[in-house]
Queue: 4 jobs
Job 1
Amino acid sequence: MKVAVVGATGMVGNIMLKVLEERNFPYTELILVASERSVGKQIFYKGINYTVVGMQEAVDQTPDIAIFSAGGSTSLEWAPKFAEVGTTVIDNSSAWRMNPNNKLIVPEINANELTKEDKIIANPNCSTIQLVMALAPLHKKYTIKRLVVSTYQSITGTGVKAVQQLENEYKGVKGEMAYHYPIHKNAIPHCDVFEENGYTKEEMKLVREPQKILNDRSIAITATAVRIPVVGGHSESVNIEFENFFNEADVRKLLNETSGITVQDNLDTNTYPMPIYAEGKDAVFVGRIRRDESQPNTLNMWIVSDNLRKGAATNAVQIAEYLIENKLV
């Protein structure tokens, strides 16, 4: 099993390597791939010094699986070239997510859609993954009618440049800016670029991607995405209107029994999800589960997850594990 990690020198790429090691992923050969400026760099991993190679060299080595975290333009150019030589690509960018010919996969929800013919598989947006993990069992039981999502997103979703900006601002040092404004002691209601409708791309991902993953375009969704000065993970305030009546105790029980979900919801002990405790973990944490008293059949929840783990690297590795376990590569 020959596996390539494309974007191995980046923030998500580093986490991917960590996740592969933690999960004892069954590769026999590992190829670390990055952009031309990183070619030739050495990465010490699991006792071995790996030399980072370029894209064409990686294609020439015909890996069985290539896990991409290298940006949309890179993926659009190179994922088809890997696919042409028989490699199955799992792509973490937004490049293929809404393409009707590519599947958008969260393994706990819809991995059973995958076949050997799927050569470019899309990994959903980080905010989408944690959202649909909590929504899927509830939609199956109660049928979601409408969803209002507000996100409070970690700077790690922007990348190393944003982390450096926050660290500089902590220290009072002037430096390169990842955002239009200071992020320290601030909240910026601007994640990704604005579209013509006044929503950002990040907000529209939260509208379109859950509908595709849950295979239900009838769910009405609206979102507001906000960047906040935290590192540990993304948080989401979610208001869900169902077609059918629900019981709060049943909702907690259902979520508790869902693989990948950890319910943290005890008001007596002030127990609820927070990014400071989600960092470095693979679970999606759900709490503040309560009925919306302003209208019927409506629920409020608070969802937190490490956006670099389940929101990116872990989900991609889980897809790869599913492909191997089911002999799809």
Note: The first strand starts at residue 2 and ends at 6.
Job 2
Amino acid sequence: MSTNTDLHVNPSREEETTSKLPSHIWAGGVAVRTIFLIVLVVLTARVASPQMERLTSIYETPGDLIRALIGVAVCAWCIVNVFKLPKDADAYRTWIYMGIGLVPLALLCAYVVW
């Protein structure tokens, strides 16, 4: 018994959910995500900076060099992610919900570290 059914290709779910996304949710999600990632870059740069006053002292201690290299990599990754926006509408909603707790916590951590 053989059934011959045509498989219909559904339109991409990404296009469908992104087109239904209200602009205020998109703007809020982008704003919260961007603020969080920028604060994360600032925190990482502050923590990864050398312990000495001069930047040339980074070569004196291997721990400072390794910490600075890892810090540069993390900062670069965060900066790239600032410009790569999520493609899913639910991601913007998630960023709004998580941002309510994450952004104040990140700002508090930046204040304490500074």
Note: The chain has one domain: 22-113.
Job 3
Amino acid sequence: MTEAPVLQIENLSAWFPLNKGMFKPATHWIKAVQDITFSVRKGETLGLVGESGCGKSTLSRTILGLREANTGRIVLNGHDMTNKSEAEQRPLRREAQMIFQDPNASLDPMRRVGQIIRAGLDIHGIGTRLERASRVADILTKVGLDPSMANRFPHEFSGGQRQRIGIARALIMEPKFIICDEPVSALDVSIQSQILNLLKDIQAERQLAYLFVSHNLAVVEHMVDRIAVMYMGRIVEIGQRNALLHTPLHPYTKALLSAVPASHPRKRKRHVTLEGDLPSLLNMPKGCALQSRCPMVTAKCKVELPTLVAAGREHKVACWNFEQTTSIEWEQSIGAHKKTTS
């Protein structure tokens, strides 16, 4: 029998209202996240990539209940979080935590490290005062910090140490699922590998499920098992790491990967540039959101929205013409598209 996923997202959407007054409803909506479906299994890391503004952060906050979903279901460790009251959600929220991008901004500068880490235990009333202090000391040791540092303030630590504190704060609640929101992008390159290896070691020990949000595809390749690619609020391709990185099918995924610098000067890559303007989230086109920039656009792309379809083992893509992106027609269409848009 197949084990149920730790996180199951079904047709999740999140919108932001515009022109909403105190006594009148919103007249327009920004559809930041639209019809998202995926799952994350125990001990697995799903990478979430896409350009800035594609909806990664909104999706993460919606999963954790920091903003309300407009449609869809969120099932966490077998518990349906949809339409539950605050009181019903509170005991379940311990099972999902977040590691934030900026360790400077995510730690309260007026509180000591021990207070920051044990805050979740205090809120949920877990253990006695001595038991909480013991758990704080244990978790500090686990992330590579001395327990005596619990009495210091965040400004007394380096950037890498502050991120370790953020990891400790997430782990102390013993969650089943953690969202890693750009956890190393604000750190020096020399420190990044230490934090990434720490996350991998903790995952292996506790069999945690990660949603790893990042724009750094080199980091994603090192950390994840599967990758989901977001564009304008939707997942346009999802699949196993190696299959998606080496054989991308969606035109947007191809452009995204081509922007990664080659690892060696002699390894030349064909750069795919998507010409044209981004559509507005306030006035999305009827068909594919990439139609104004895609070199493979057809009449069908302009009237019908593509949905995720199977394109291989655990590989799905939302594109009407994905089979052509691996052929010579793709190379020819790029040159033709550049001429028409220049």
Note: Residues 249 and 330 are 11 Å apart (CA to CA).
Job 4
Amino acid sequence: MAKTNVHYLCSECGWTGAKWFGKCPECGQWGTIDEFHEARPAAATRTSAARRASGTAGAATGIGADGRVSRTRSVAVAAGAARPITEIGTDDVTRIPTGFSEFDRVLGGGIVPGSVVLVAGEPGIGKSTLLLETAGNIARTHAAEGGRVLYVSGEESQGQVRLRASRINAVEPNLLLAATTDLATVLGLIEQERPTLAIVDSAQTIVSQDVDGISGGSTQVREVASALIDVAKTLDVPVLLVGHVTKDGSIAGPRTLEHLVDVVCQFEGDAETALRMLRAVKNRFGPTDEVGCFDMSGEGIEEVTDPAGLFLSTAAGAESTGNATGDTAGDAQADAPVEGTCVTFTLDGHRSLPIEIQSLVTNSVLPTPRRAVNGVDANRIAMLVAVLYRHGRVNLLSNDLYVSTIAGGLAKEPACDLAIVAALASAAKHAPIARTTCAIGEISLTGQVRPAPRLEYRLREAARLGFTTAVVPRLRKHMTIPGLAIVQVSSLKAALDALL
């Protein structure tokens, strides 16, 4: 049996030491240090490996008289192992499309051959469904050229995976299913089949017999990840890994797992809504500020290339989404402007998303007025109400305020301040804002409207969705957006006069 070297590892920051601590001396977290058993190969094995690599023996290879490899002596290597960077070719790598344009956007254009992608998310958020549907898309695309996709499940049986594949229309003859938790079996399947894509669900359920530790522990997760990365780089087979998360939302296992893989993607969403967001936390082959939108349904995962309809109500988005059905006057009345609503645009990566702010103002019968919010920052609402009273001459201090967004959208960045204040003032004064008007800008404590980052991206998206007027802060340079009238304001009072 191989000798083991016992030390202690922090699953939060990766600190290692020879002694156990209840509190990590590096990151200060409690209860994150576990015992780590690292297998150490025998001396004869290391000696034979060194001799095979160098083809010589003795002092030239760094092997001492006792047969062990010296750490301080050099080992001969093959000629040409190190080459000038100018002589290394720059052949374009052909990426593998996933069948989802949103997934490809997050990855930087598709899956790079030989890369290892870690997809993490909350339980039941749809990680396995997304990857199984991706496996079906790639298997369908590469069926003519004989390509195969290997899906290894350590959590479900083959029959259970087959049922889910039937539901989401991912049944393909060249999609291979395997149900095992043994790492050696997984590596053998990849080497035997040489698939176009390999998916392992999940990294915490695969166990290596060469190291100690329970399934999902720091020792096992690190060994499984290292072995899968090694076979992916050696055989040039891309591997998609499913990762579990802890109670606080971080990826389970040692932090070194995120350093080992090439791409780390977070699959996020609210369990009460069907909206799912895929964002890249780390990406060696593309940007890390791209976001993909998906919709979870009974038939599987559907990508949302234009999320405007998700975050806008019918009244706010009927005209902007091109509603030209020619219905009767009853529908025209339903599309009339509604008081207490205002649309703004937030940035999530490079994507500009429309968010509709809805507010309700009522007379309070409580000693302390109620402030109920959803999708916005409650502390920000308290500050904006005070600024609205002081600089906008709208007194809402004694009213019950209800502020919410549509479909679980988040309007927590400062650029949404102007739309929140406009929605509150509209509800208080019973003055609806035109549904083709949007407001973008940050409000300071002095009542000034401050610029928002990447304003041009937001305005171009507003013009594309059919908005005709945008109330924004003073621009530092002249900007012209076809089809969009830009109203520049410098104070909260001027912004309310333009909107109402």
Note: Residues 15 and 165 are 41 Å apart (CA to CA).
